[in-house]
Amino acid sequence: MVNQWIQGVELGEKLRCNPSFGDRDALSTKNRILQVRYEDLRQDTFTHLNRIFEFIGLPVAAPELDSITAALSINNVKQKGEGHHIRKGIVDAWKDELSQGDIETCNRMAAPQLKKLGYEL
Known about the structure:
Blueprint: H1 2-17, H2 38-43, H3 45-55, H4 62-71, H5 94-97, H6 100-116
Helix pairs in contact: 1-6
């Protein structure tokens, strides 16, 4: 699983560095890639979901965004957690679920990417 995360981060970085897909295209000043952190989305769903809609050029009024946020809340998902595709939806739950050895292994494997993204080891 850590290898998949590392690969995803590295592919995202390659896209950002590619002039055809980078942060700004050659014909405009519009960003072409939006980075969204799960932690931020969970902490302030309304703000970050609004940022996503603005990025794709689809303005959404606050009442509608409130409705979307409520409808898509992980709290409404009935089949989540152990054994399901959708986990608990709790930021940093892995700290309680993984052993200290597993956490150290993950940190060792992903240290460069974690540091680059601003995560503490």
